[in-house]
Amino acid sequence: MSGRRIVYLTALLMGAVFHSLYGQYLSYILLRFLILLPFVSLLISLPAMLRVRVHLSASGTSPRGEAAAARLKMDSRCFLPVGCLSMTFTGENRFTGEAVEKRKVRCWGVLKAEESLPLPSDSCGVVTCRLGRVWAWDYMGIFAFPVKRCDPATYTVLPIPDEPKPMPELDQDSAITLKPKAGGGYSEEHELRPYRQGDPLNVIHWKLSSKLDEPIVREPQLMQRKRVTLSVTPSSDRRALESQLDQLLYLSRSLIEKGIPHRICFGAHQQAYIKDKNSLDEFLEAILSARPDGSRGPVDRNKSDELVYSIRPKPGEGGTKP
User: Fold this and answer.
1) The pTM is what?
2) What is the separation, in whole angstroms, between the first and last Cα of the chain?
3) How far apart are CA 98 and CA 269, in angstroms?
4) Per-residue pLDDT tens over the stretch 33-88
5) Which residues fall within 8 angstroms of residue 305, CB to CB, at 6 or more apart?
6) How far apart are CA 59 and CA 151, in angstroms?
7) How far from chain centre, in Å, is Cα 191?
8) Helix and strand tally (H, E) in the chain?
9) Are the beta carbons of 142 and 8 closer than 8 angstroms?
10) Are strands 227-232 and 262-266 parallel, antiparallel or unpaired?
């Protein structure tokens, strides 16, 4: 608004020069008018300037690459509009550390208005956007008062689900294992093993024992689902990391659709038990809210009761050729 102040001061100076040269009553009235005009403008503008409120909100979530925008709502809460609202809009992607391009926003004659502010969505992450100091100006643009600060807004840029190649076998059949049934008893699944002292006689496989000339028993087995774990060691390359996130989202959603609870390990310090879409969404937001540390996850190989799949970047997207 410095331009308007310069225009006003120029007009005031010309009025003073005119009064000094002309010296008539008309020049006196004109000079008085120029002196009082800003204060009259302030008096009329003041109710709206003091009562105006600004609210910033974002679009929630969007897939990477899809258009996103923040909504700026302004309400003078008065029958008169605010002459002008000026503010600075900025933000930061918490996952990548990239800053949102800083821009100046000006809105004229605000009574009740909304404005859409485009947001970057080419990188995954939780983006926090905020307004700097908001100023309400009078109708002449000479005086300004600060407006009450509004809370920052956040939105999440999600990965795009991408099927791994080759697709790992993480369905129910491959995630089943057998273990000895505690206390014995009936079971459809058995495992044959040599007789050990203390085994009851009714578990001896007499027919097979007679052929092998040594006692063989049938040990009841209990079917148990292996714990499925998706492990990610975050890559330092942005494209490679996004490839890992894309595959992670695809696999986790596939397991949820099949009703298979699973665990996700992202680096060494972030892990969660995923049982439905809500728990997946919450964990994704937790991952995308902080810079990845790039450390290896606690799980990087299969165990007897655990089926682990380590997600690596695809070749050509920051990954190495298999």
Assistant:
1) 0.72
2) 61
3) 23
4) 889 998 999 999 999 999 999 999 987 888 998 988 899 999 998 889 999 999 99
5) 177, 179, 224, 226, 227
6) 15
7) 49
8) 5, 17
9) yes
10) parallel
